[in-house]
Amino acid sequence: MNPRRVTAVFLRIVAQFRRDRRTLALLFGAPIAIIALLGWVLSSSGATTSRVAIVNASGNPAGNAIVLKLTAALNGQPKVQVVDVRDSATARQMLIDNKLDLVVSVPADFSLQNRKIQLTTLGLNPAGESTVIPAIQQALIGAVVQDAGGALPTIERSTVYGSPDATQLDTLAPVVVGFFVYFFVFILTGVSFLRERMGGTLERLMATPVSRSEIVLGYSLGFGFFATLQIALVLAFVIGRLDVPALGPVPAFAIGLGVKAIGSPLIAYLIVLVLGLGAVSLGIFISTFARSEFQILQFIPIVIVPQGLLGGFFWPIDQLPGLLQPLARILPVTYAIDGLRQVMIAGADLTSPAVLLDLGVLAGIAAIFVVLATATIRREVV
Amino acid sequence: MAVASPIAVEAIALRKSFGPIHAVDGIDMALPAGKIYGLLGPNGSGKTTLIRLLTGLASATSGTVRVNGVAMPSRTNLASIGYMTQADGIYPELSVWENLSFFGALYGQTDRAAMIKTLELVDLADRLDSPAQDLSGGMRRRLSMACALVHHPRVIFLDEPTVGVDPALRVQFWQHFRRLAADGATLLVSSHVMDEADRCDELLFIRSGRVLAQGTSEELRKRAGTDDIETAFLRFAEGPGPDGSGGTPTAAAQDKNGAAR
Closest to A380 (Cβ–Cβ): which among B58, B76, B103? Predict the structure, then answer.
């Protein structure tokens, strides 16, 4: 291992990037833009008012009483608007015409002994429609219990980590950071090394005294350097928040998402960096199996998308079907997501066995791909 | 000049097979240092594969290669070997200087003045900061050559260095090769253009992965009984040389593509 040659490879990659302004812009601009978009989307979800109709088909005193109480309870809820609708057929049509979000029906056989109430939504977007249902349930319990003369039950939410009012963004943002770095480092290294293979420069490198491991190390340093800058910028954007006051015609706005991170950003940084170093070798390894940039892109659905689906991004690993769980447990992104959540949400530090395990597995996976990448470099081109 | 020059490039029973195809099919050669050798043969005759074997970039199916007495492949020996590939093999986004100093660093060349001198030899010293992608085709070719010579190698392999190079530049290239040989370097230049033959000290006719004949241009033409080097090549390719010594009869006997059999 000759430091001069490693440095030469490292500096060359930095020089190449410096001249490729578009890729630099992509590297730093794209994750910020997408995370900002995600923050915007998530912050506004549930902000719209749900239009609810209560249809009383019972006509008996028990039904009338519950309708009155439900109406009063729902009117007391934020973001709920009670719409007056006479019969269920009209209500159904109004759901279809998108004039209503939810219909609460008190059926004809409603009685004090049979307190059954129907909730109807359109069903096209189950996730969005259900946001108002917890409020209805609470109102309903309140109404029914009040009816029996008891005290109103109250529900208090608490969580071990974070806070119950943590937004989806607070839990998603750390994960998105790791995923982006992995994606960009993989694609950029894959394409760079493919160009090295196809452009005849790899042949040239192999005709110099540089060794394969010196090339892999130089690449890791070069891409690690840009990954470092990228992680720093993205983490700063996610964690930090700079409120800019209104100035003349420009309304007040904020730069950064201000996600509440409890743990040390430095440990989060370390996790993403080890993940990114694995992606460098993965990119070099994958470039062996591609003949063009387009073929590198074909590896996105094979290499990147499964990690997004299985890595704990959408569903916890232990809720996956049994056969998929072992698969999820060999994916590096799984460990990065777990580590980032441990650190940023649960506030774990380097004394936490879970974080150490995550870091260890990530380092191990990176080491495996360093060996694979090194082994494939001198693959003969016929 | 009575003392024989040391052997710079040596191959013994060298073979390289890709499945059923024998790209290099039993080549023996011993090239004394300080000369320009021309590796002549049609496309697909095995010239590039032979050079890749000699530089240690490809591993031989069987046989031995020695460069400056060191068995190849040897990574450390590459510091005294220059290889100009058929493709330009330079980084288009990097400037002339960045390309040259990158390869210089890999070869262990640290002398900035020496590197600038290499660029002067290929007439690119005034384009130090131009990105390689802004250069003309001929300039890129020259930069590629400079990258192969940046460390003053003792043995230089040039794979079709003059392809796509205009005649004036080609003359410059050959003048430069001659200077390098005069300084004691050994050059092996592959070409499929026969009119470059007279510029070499010695020629190796190569076809179907075998050396058909070796000698000076004059000798080979005389043995083939023609004044034209192209005709000489074809006569050697048809079978054993007219005087019975030019060809490689054992190889010719196995040649399934041999037209004359």
Answer: B58
